[in-house]
Amino acid sequence: MSVPLLSARNLHKAYGALQVTDDLSLEIIEGELQAIIGPNGAGKTTLIAQLSGQLRPDSGQIAYEGRDITRLKMHERVRLGMARSFQITSILPGFTMLENVAMAVQARSGSSFRFFGSAARERALNEAAMAALAEVGLEDRAHRIAGPMSHGEHRQLEIAIALATKPRLLLLDEPLAGTGGEEAEHLVALFRRLKSRLTLVLIEHDMQAVFALADRISVLVYGRIIASGSPDEIRRDPAVRAAYLGEEVA
Ligand SMILES: Nc1ncnc2c1ncn2[C@@H]1O[C@H](COP(=O)(O)OP(=O)(O)OP(=O)(O)O)[C@@H](O)[C@H]1O
């Protein structure tokens, strides 16, 4: 069997007495969209933070293409092709959409543009930023100030920021939170497009979107994965229904 793009083995993370990640193992296969669902406080954001390098696990290993990356910092993982969008907005409201993407790319990828002189660096950053804005459908608003844009546009901008680092693997933490109607539909269509060329990990409470998009769903409860399978398998799983989904998705 081929090596998973990303794998976690026996991860543990506690906040004081609270075990938030409890002997958790999972595999992300290249090309799939794997959703991670679970009740509030199950440890989904904490898991993404460990996978992306924002948070160090207490024990356990994380591997990318079979290489141990447990001790790599976030920007080092970005350079390997991993990117994360944030649940809490990280946008600078006084700057344009383009400046937001360009600055975030520079900050998140560390010194990956260091080989360029300053003018060429700025051009390379702007090109990467503009391409990412085009991909999420914000090209025409690139020079608008980010602050007054809508919540849905901020969400698109955050995804553009992650895409501008040219990832192979994109970790999305509740990208639909606070959106609805057309905005949400727009984002779901974007994830469908991204799915054809990227590996995606999606944390999301919107079950309609999750079941429409996911190739595989893992269910996290109290820091443990209690089930992992196709949307149909998860929908039918009695343990999942008892612990989380109830009858609503059935
Ligand atoms: N820095 C922290 N210090 C102490 N406790 C924390 C910290 N961060 C998270 N927790 C706690 O860890 C648990 C898991 O939080 P986490 O945000 O990972 O859950 P989640 O599944 O993403 O929840 P939600 O769906 O509500 O976003 C929660 O009980 C939370 O209160």
TrEMBL record:
CDD domains (alphabetical): ABC_Mj1267_LivG_branched
Pfam families reported in the protein's UniProt record: ABC_tran, BCA_ABC_TP_C
Residue ranges of domain ABC transporter in the record: 6-247
One term of GO molecular function: ATP binding
Alphabetical UniProt keywords: ATP-binding, Nucleotide-binding, Transport
GO CC terms in record: plasma membrane
Coiled-coil spans in chain: none
Stretches that traverse the bilayer: none
InterPro entries (UniProt xref): AAA+_ATPase, ABC_AA/LPS_Transport, ABC_transporter-like_ATP-bd, BCA_ABC_TP_C, P-loop_NTPase
Domain of life from the UniProt record: Bacteria
Protein name: ABC transporter ATP-binding protein
Organism: Pontibaca salina
Organism classification: Bacteria, Pseudomonadati, Pseudomonadota, Alphaproteobacteria, Rhodobacterales
